[in-house]
Amino acid sequence: MESALSGYELIVRELGATVLEEYDNDAAPH
């Protein structure tokens, strides 16, 4: 259970980082 939870948390953090990068790219003037 603990390892599954930490795996889920890792995925959530990775997705969050990806979303933030995408947002930064879209928001930044090119």
Account of the 3D structure:
The structure is a single chain. This protein is an all-alpha fold and 30 residues long. It is 87% helix and 0% strand. It contains 1 helix and no strands. The mean pLDDT is 83.
* Backbone structural class: mainly alpha
Helix content: over 70%
Give the N-to-C terminal Cα separation. Answer: 45 Å
Topology, number of strands: 0
What is the CA-based Rg, rounded? 13 Å
Please state the overall shape, judged from the principal axes of the Cα atoms. Answer: rod-shaped
The largest sheet, given as strand count, sense and whether it forms a barrel, is: none
Averaging pLDDT over every residue, what do you get?
A: 83
Q: Which spans of ≥5 residues are poorly predicted at pLDDT below 50?
A: none
Helix tally? 1
Classify the beta-strand content into a percent band.
Answer: under 5%
SSE pattern, N- to C-terminal: H
Q: Can you describe this structure in just a few lines?
A:
The protein is mostly helical and 30 residues long.
